[in-house]
Design a protein that fits this description.
This protein has one domain (3-34, 65-174, 213-318). 74% of the residues lie in helices and 0% in strands. The chain has helices at 3-31, 37-61, 68-93, 103-114, 122-130, 135-163, 173-178, 181-194, 200-210, 213-224, 234-258, 267-276, 283-290, 295-318. Helix 3 (68-93) runs antiparallel to helix 4, helix 3 packs antiparallel against helix 11 (234-258) and helix 13 packs antiparallel against helix 14 (295-318). The protein is globular, with a radius of gyration of 19 Å. The model has no long low-confidence stretch (mean pLDDT 93).
Length: 323
């Protein structure tokens, strides 16, 4: 399949439905005057967190054997995340690029440039390139790398480099992690797979419920992006360039070093590049609200990276880093 045929398929099969869902969320409050975007966003996020996402995690974990290739995805994306974070720290805390920015703004830019929307955007792209079973790469990246790092290093960045609040008591990070329904669903599925207790009808039922995860989250993303205030700002575009272009290159190079040679990269390594290329995660906004960072910048970071992703992914494909 040549580049332009593959690109047209990606645009129609993946980008078009994702774009329509985001657009539906954007126009919903304008079409229905009685809609309360904040309330709607909160309630839909809760349904995703407590029902839809746990189901898909359970289904994947209960049918996916652990392999070195599978675990290479969170490893490679984690390397890209940490390297990008170091680069963003130097740019916004140690260079003229961030000299006129407040610490809450700098922290949001670092967090937004480190972690991507690796499941809700990454999974549809992975399925397009590698088939439906490639969802496992996004799931294991989320559970093994993203969640632990966001709720440890991400919280550290938010509180130590961003808000600088003193005498404020926050819930324990580990308490937050162990009370997340998705992690319990993943653990249950993983245990059933390891013990040979997987029950296929139950897996099928969980997959059926979990299918709602991505459409609902993309709709919520449309509700969340501050469309009226999407003015380009140099610092946001700089962080977006690191997230969408620099981080995939770092992961691609790391794959060549750890799984040589580059010319013989496997499916899991290409999947790592896809995961690294995804736009900023919506949890950036959650962290900004929770730890009193710059929420407006967080919204702009999510918005701009989501829009620019439609342009950056074809560039990554043209460079041969995704096949």
């Amino acid at each position: 399949m040549n580049y332009f045929t593959q690109l047209s398929g990606l645009m129609i099969e993946v980008m078009l439905p994702l774009g329509l869902l985001v657009a539906a969320g954007a126009f919903w409050p304008r079409i229905f005057a009685d809609a309360q975007p904040d309330v709607l966003r909160t309630q839909l996020n809760r349904v995703v967190m407590y029902v839809f996402y746990p189901c898909i995690l359970f289904a994947v974990a209960s049918t996916t054997p652990i392999t070195v290739n599978l675990l290479s995805v969170p490893l490679l994306v984690g390397i890209g995340t940490l390297c990008s974070g170091a680069l963003l720290y130097l740019l916004f805390y140690r260079s003229p690029v961030g000299k006129n920015l407040s610490d809450p703004t700098r922290a949001v830019l670092v967090i937004g440039g480190m972690w991507g929307n690796t499941f809700n955007v990454g999974a549809p792209v992975l399925i397009f390139f590698f088939g439906r079973d490639a969802t496992r790469y996004a799931i294991y990246n989320d559970v093994v790398m993203t969640m632990p790092l966001v709720w440890s290093l991400g919280v550290w960045i938010a509180t130590r480099l961003g808000s600088h609040e003193r005498g404020v008591s926050y819930p324990s990070v580990w308490r937050v992690l162990v009370t997340m329904p998705p992690l319990w669903a993943f653990a249950l599925g993983f245990a059933s797979q390891q013990l040979g207790l997987t029950y296929q009808p139950l897996v099928t039922a969980a997959q059926f419920v979990g299918q709602a995860t991505i459409p609902v989250v993309m709709f919520v993303l449309g509700l969340t992006i501050p469309w009226r205030n999407l003015a380009p700002r140099p610092e946001i575009l700089t962080a977006a360039a690191v997230k969408l272009l620099v981080m995939p290159v770092i992961v691609w190079l790391a794959a060549g070093v750890l799984f040589p040679p580059l010319s013989h990269m496997g499916e899991a390594q290409y999947a790592s590049v896809v995961e690294a290329a995804t736009p900023a995660m919506m949890t950036t906004l959650l962290l900004a609200d929770r730890f009193k960072l710059d929420s407006a910048t967080a919204g702009l970071m999510v918005g701009w990276t989501t829009l620019l992703f439609w342009l950056s992914l074809p560039v990554i494909m043209a460079l041969g880093m995704i096949r």
